[in-house]
Write the structure tokens for this entry.
Amino acid sequence: MIRVLIADDHAIVRRGISALLETKADIQVVGEAADGEEAVAQTERLRPDVVLMDLMMPRMDGIEAIRRITARCPGVRALVLTSFAADDKLFPALKAGALGYLLKDSGPEELVQAIRQVHRGESSLHPSIARKVLRELTHPSGHPAPGDALTDRELEVLRLVAQGLSTQEIAKRLVITEATARTHVSNVLSKLHLSSRTQAVLYALREGLVSLEDDGPR
């Protein structure tokens, strides 16, 4: 029997999931929690096998709750069930100790299968989440895939930065104002988590966006 705790700040969601899981002979819902603090307390008290964890909750969010549960109850496995697929939620949740990450648009059987997989100690990721994880593995943090991170105009600006053009020269080349060019450069550095133009040049070379044989400004 897989003992499950459901943590979600919406009562109707908890009731719906509970009703679904109660139809499965191998799953038992042992408790519910309406926020992160309650999720941690209930986990310590009930010691479920799997905690089904929403991320956006009052008092304490799901990521911090997972972090505390992982530290205090190492035998309990966390499965995220959320509406958010953004990197700033996904990767912190996985680093906190979540073994699975499912989106709320998943089907009922997908949820049941994910609970069983996580209970067995296997990772369970929504297909779109799995793609993000694979992309992160091939383009580690701080160096995201350029096609995904930057717009076409920002890629163009990055190439010009790598060719050694100043902000003023980039503005003239692209027929935009210096202020707009400066904003594009700033956005490029911010999105790629870089702190200088030199790092941007090295990044562009590493990703094959420019080569040492490229001509300079024309």
